[in-house]
Amino acid sequence: MIFATFLMSLREIRRNTMRSILTMLGIVIGVAAVITMTIIGEGATQSVKNDISALGDNMLIVSPGAARRGPVSSGSKSFTDADVSAIESQIGGIAAMAPAASRGATVVYGNLNVSTQVMGTTEGYVEVRGYKLAQGRLLNDVDVRSGTAVCVLGETVRKALFGTGDAIGTSLRVGKVTCTVVGVLAPKGSSAMGQDQDDVLLIPLRQFQRRMSGNRDIPTIYISVDDSRPTAAVKARIEALLRERRGIQRGSEDDFNVRDMAEIAATVSSATGALTALLGAIAAVSLLVGGIGIMNIMLVSVTERTREIGIRIAIGALGREVMLQFLTEAVVLSTLGGVIGIITGVAMGFGVTSLMKIPFVPTPGIIIISFAFSAIVGVAFGYLPARKAAKLSPIEALRHE
Amino acid sequence: MVSDADQVSEREAAIRAVNAITPWFELKQISKIYGHGESEVRALDRIDLSIYAGEFVSVMGTSGSGKSTCMNIVGCLDVPTSGTYLFHGVDVGKLDRDQQALLRRHYIGFVFQGFNLLARTSALENVELPLVYRRVAKSERRERAMRALAEVGLAGREGHTPAELSGGQQQRVAIARALVTEPSLLLADEPTGNLDSARSEEIMQLLVRLNMERSLTIAMVTHEPDMAEFGTRIVTFRDGHIIDDQPTKRMIA
Q1: Domain count within chain B
Q2: Per the domain annotation, does B1 fall within a domain?
Q3: Do A315 and B110 touch (CB under 8 A)?
Q4: DSSP assignment of chain B, as one string?
Q5: Per-residue pLDDT tens digits for A336-357
């Protein structure tokens, strides 16, 4: 009986092509919308998270000036070599640190020149900022201490000056300094804030101070906290140490600030979380609209179906045979629509994420929920009216207007 | 030596004698009441009616006279409020919904005023439908449906859907659908109600032929005296009672 009913349901689906397509369409749209939206939302969130972790989410940036007056305030004094050594020797849990000073400068090679950010720093900078070396070597201890005239290029600078040629070993003029290229950094792309992180040229801090800034100030210290230590605790200890060293009285404000990338990451994550929630809400509305669409089609056909059920019962069908037929029909349509919806949604999600160059992260939970919701609506509104009609007396069902 | 003709008439006489004792369908003191208390409507009031094998009973009466209610009970589509209905000797009142459905499936064919064919479904598939519920194998189903359609004069139109057929043709499909199971009773509720007089005449001729050639027992509801005359017997209803029950001229002649 079940197999015969199944065949009969398939015949009915084929016979009522338009109604079947419209029913399925509601489910397809609902499921596909939810899946596409959440894939985009998840992808955007993931993309931002990746950017932040590429930046180093265990990074602290120490700079002069009170936090509320902006990162760099002319009124506050910079740090010194002694501050750097004090942090290095007295604070535990630091994986790497790099004092740094920077300024914009024009870099000249042959008859080509390019403006970039020249960063005077130490060996630790590459590790703290999460750069990788593409060619040659990094600045080393010897370079930093002796202030040898060497430099390491970011990809953007290298490309502008050398194109496909080899940069290692050539001499560049950086401002008034002539230095030898010893290494090239691997491209890192844009930061979460949209800054080109490859538009940089690294030279030893000592050399920067001697030849470019003309003083021994250290405007910024980058610190990478050991993964096993809580960043906030290390931050607090650095703040305490610097207050003491800078002679700030209890109760007065800091004239420096320590920014925690983990905090920034959390802020940005919550913002993208809100984006995902918004997309999710839009998707939920489309699911609801899809559900109402299914409901409409099903209810519109109730009159016709009630008469049909009356005919079937009059010629001797049992109530349960009719209900089984309609249930099968609803299940087949809902499942088919759901599967098409999943395929469409995942395909659209894949298309959009690859266009936006963000990670493609399908969420099985959402796929299952949207499918289940649509299927339940489809089955309920396909089956319940049929069940009601099958319980009518055949005469009432036949007279149904 | 007795001739063949004599043998046949002797057999018929025997069948008639048996039938005279045992009607195929027998209503005893049937009442049908709708509503309760003040608004109570007595659609049928203690009706007695027997239908014998091979009869073509025309049931007449104005609307509201109870004729349709009575036929719905005869067709096991409705149950009486009180009284006993014996269907081939079985008390229908004691059967549950499913058993009544099985009775319809195996013994009754229906023809309705509004044709009641499945829309967007070919004539052949419409006629096959009762056989599907009877679990008849596909090839046999097809063959029997083709034969039934040929019998009502629709050979060659098996693939047409109701929308592609005229009213008269749709009613023929409905008759084929009722015939295909070889029922012991064909119940027709105003079969010509939606048709013009020429088409009505054709449908009636078809029913008469089925009654004569296949000894098909027919109960037909109509309010047109012309149509009623095609039967062998006319039962007239008024206000829930049978007021007249007579053989037709066709029988007397």
Answers
A1: 1
A2: no
A3: yes
A4: ---HHHHHHHHHHHHHHHHHHS-SEEEEEEEEEES-GGG-EEEEEEEEEEE-TT-EEEEE--TTSSHHHHHHHHTTSS--SEEEEEETTEEGGGS-HHHHHHHHHHHEEEE-TT--PPTT--HHHHHHHHHHHTT--HHHHHHHHHHHHHHTT-TT-TT--GGGS-HHHHHHHHHHHHHTT--SEEEEESTTTTS-HHHHHHHHHHHHHHHHHS---EEEE-S-HHHHTTSSEEEEEETTEEEEEEE-HHHH-
A5: 889 999 999 999 999 999 998 8
